[in-house]
Amino acid sequence: MATHKRIAELIVKHRRNTLSDHERQELEAWCGLCEENQLLFERLNRQAYHTDSLVEFYSEAINGERGKVRPLFPRQGRQRFVAAITYMVILGCLLFTGITLYSGLQKGAGKKSAATNSRASSALSNAVLPDVHRVQLKLANDRIVYLDSSVNGHIALQYRSVIYKQGDEVRYEWSNGDAQPELEYNTITTPRTRKFVLELPDGSKAWLNASSSITFPTAFINKERIVQITGEVYFEVNPQPVSPGTGQQMKPFIVYANPLPGGKGGGAMIEVLGTHFNINDYGDEPAIKTTVLQGKVRVSNRFGPLTDIVHAVSRLNRKAAKQPNEQSAVLIPGQQANVNGDGQLEVIKYADIQEVMAWQKDLLIFNDLDIKQIMQQLCRQYDLEVEYKEPVTGHYTLSMTRQLTVEPVLKALELSGGINFEIEGHKIIVSQ
Predict the structure, then answer these.
(1) Within 13 Å, how many C-alpha atoms sit on residue 246's CB side?
(2) Which end of the chain is flanked by fewer CB atoms within 10 Å, N or C?
(3) pLDDT band at residue 418 using 50, 70 and 90 as cut-offs
(4) DSSP state letters, 408-419
(5) Residues 79, 161 within the same domain
(6) What mean pLDDT do residues 275-287 have?
(7) In whole angstroms, what is the distance from residue 236 CA to residue 247 CA?
(8) FecR protein domain: which residues (predicted)?
């Protein structure tokens, strides 16, 4: 097992970008042992983590507090524990030789004072800025990798597929070989406030909005490329040629969207005939919405209740017969198909592409939406809850950046007239 001294050395080398391949693998293995290790690595590796934070960390260790940091180290005696922390502090301070202990402490004190003085002016302060939660990658063996705290570079291996991470993007590369790869599925899940990008083994890309997920094979070895999603995902599909004589120009790419909660119908099947499209499958929305930006897609409500992607592959391979009330439509750029909770399919010939794709461009665009639809989006973006004091009516139009805190967004809605908001912690109370 890696010693505290060794891990401290590896973290410092990571900050200096001087890790060897072997050392990187060693650090990744330690981070993957448990969530506590990953949390500690994330804390030590933050850009804003300077001398004052290290001193605070050292003080916590000396005082023997039972916080989230202490359990990361083996209980082999207080003396060894303090020595390990001291070594980590010394190494960390070498990274920031231009920062004095006095100025660091003064800076920390100033921050605390400013936060205290501003608390009265805002119940939220900066507590609901975007990007406060964690993105998870669930591997085929059920191991969870926290992507936002994983180091850049190679993070895992799934049979013949190598997984790389760079910033807010993960890439799967299938290493071709004589052996047929096993069919293994991974899942990426984003919490509220977070977005993430996935490059699939075939080079296709998927952008995940907040509160979304995608389940996919680590290698596309079947006749069809099949993935399953929840929430909202934008796809740019890479054409993959098939063998001559199949009668197809491109290996089919199929997306399954989960059924809406409480609906009598099933989910939706989206077969890609082109490249760029967006799917909105949030459980609190009235319909599964598929919008085409480039190429063509075929949307169907064929498959009824869908439990998981493996079941979907089995049904597709059996070429299931047409079901009662089955509907399908081929969409071209600018069109949208909605599959409601009862499984009914409706085609919108002229969708508002700017509004649909606002999330992917870090914008909030509401075009004539009622307040409940707006609050659903804000709750996902800022990790909030909403309470309605009374029935609210009216539609609103607004365009703002997603990089703001929620307060100016609510203020802009209030200025539109007919709506009021109260903030209590992470709850927004709506009234008219």
Answers:
(1) 11
(2) N
(3) confident
(4) HHHHHHHHTSS-
(5) no
(6) 91
(7) 23
(8) 187-298
**Quick check: 27 and 10 in contact, CB under 8 A?**
yes
The answer to the question of residue 128 being in a domain is no
Residue 225 and residue 113 share a domain: no
- pLDDT confidence of 7, banded at 50, 70, 90? confident
For 319, the 3-state DSSP assignment is coil
DSSP symbols for 371-390 = HHHHHHHHHHHHT-EEEESS
Angle between helices 51-63 and 78-95 (to 10 degrees): 180
Residue 420: give its domain's CATH number.
3.55.50.30
Distance CA 259, CA 274 (A): 24
CA distances from 344 to 191, 231, 283 (A): 29, 19, 16
Print the domain residue range for 77.
4-120
Last residue of a domain, one of 353, 386, 403: 353
Contacts of 308 (CB under 8 A, 6+ apart): 215, 228
> Who wins on pLDDT, 409 or 72?
409
Is residue 255 within 8 Å of 229, Cβ to Cβ?
yes
User: pLDDT per residue over 183-210, tens digit each?
Assistant: 789 999 999 989 999 999 999 999 999 9
* Same domain membership, residue 378 and residue 337: no
Determine, yes or no, domain membership for 125: no
Same domain (yes/no): 46, 82: yes
Same-domain check for residues 107 and 153? no
Q: Give the CATH number of the domain where residue 219 resides.
A: 2.60.120.1440
Do 261 and 312 belong together in one domain? yes
Secondary structure letter of residue 321 according to DSSP: P
The length of the chain, given as a count of residues:
432
Same domain, 290 and 422: no
Query: What residues pair up with 363 in beta bridges, in sequence order?
Result: 401
Dist. CA 124–CA 423, nearest whole Å = 7
Sequence-ordered strand ranges (E) for 259-374? 268-272, 276-281, 287-294, 297-300, 328-331, 336-340, 345-348, 363-370
Q: Looking at the structure, tell me whether residues 349 and 373 fall in a common domain.
A: no
* 271, part of any domain: yes
Q: In 28-132, where do the E strands start and end? A: none
Residue 75 maps to a domain:
yes
Q: Does residue 176 have a pLDDT over 70?
A: no
Dihedral angle, C-alpha 39, 41, 45, 48, nearest 10 °:
30
